[in-house]
Write a structure and sequence with these properties.
The protein is an alpha/beta fold. The chain has a single domain (6-117), classed as Nonspecific Lipid-transfer Protein, Chain A (2-Layer Sandwich). The protein has helices spanning 6-11, 14-23, 79-87, 92-97, 107-112, 123-129, and strands spanning 34-41, 48-53, 56-61, 72-78, 101-105, 137-138. The chain has a 6-stranded mixed beta sheet with strand order 5-4-1-2-3-6. The radius of gyration is 14 Å and the shape is globular.
C-alpha cells in the first residue's frame, strides 16, 4: 500500500474517501444501494458520497446521487477522526463510541456500517474481489 501519511489525508481528504472505497467489502455491503454522505469537519464544507451495494464496485460521488432518503447514512468527522477507520487501524465501532466519527440515519443501516468495511489485515482479500485501478468519481448533472 505504500507509506502511510496521515497529514496527506488532512490536506487532501479525498484520499480518505478513496481508502473507504478500496476497503469496502462488497460481499457484506447492503443488497440495495446505500449512499454514505461524508462531511469532513474543518475542510471544504461540501459533502462527498460513497455508494455501496453488494457485489458492486463502490463509487465516489462529488454530487448528491439523489437516491431515496431512507438509503442515506450520514458520516461526520474531521480527517484525523475518520483516517484510522478508513485505513482499518481502528474499528468503526470504537470511532463511533468515542464520538470521533458520528454516524446517523436509518438505525439498521447505521448499525451495519462497521460490517461494510474490511479490517486492514484483510485488505488483500478485498482486492481479490474487486478491480480498483484508479479512484472513480461520478459526476451527476443537476438541473
Amino acid at each position: 500500500m505504500g507509506t502511510e501519511d496521515p497529514d496527506m489525508a488532512r490536506r487532501d481528504p479525498i484520499v480518505i474517501l478513496w481508502w473507504l472505497r478500496h476497503r469496502a467489502d462488497v460481499r457484506t455491503a447492503p443488497e440495495r444501494q446505500v449512499a454514505l454522505e461524508i462531511a469532513l469537519r474543518g475542510n471544504d464544507p461540501d459533502r462527498c458520497w460513497v455508494l455501496l451495494a453488494r457485489n458492486t464496485e463502490p463509487t465516489l460521488c462529488l454530487e448528491d446521487p439523489l437516491i431515496g432518503q431512507d438509503r442515506y447514512v450520514y458520516v461526520e468527522a474531521d480527517a484525523a477522526g475518520l483516517y484510522p477507520a478508513a485505513r482499518g487501524l481502528r474499528s468503526w465501532t470504537e470511532a463511533m463510541a468515542d464520538g470521533s466519527v458520528r454516524i446517523y440515519g436509518e438505525p439498521d443501516l447505521v448499525a451495519a456500517v462497521p460490517s461494510w468495511f474490511l479490517p486492514v489485515e484483510r485488505d488483500e482479500d478485498a482486492r481479490s474481489h474487486l478491480s480498483l485501478p484508479e479512484p472513480e468519481l461520478a459526476f451527476e448533472a443537476t438541473g
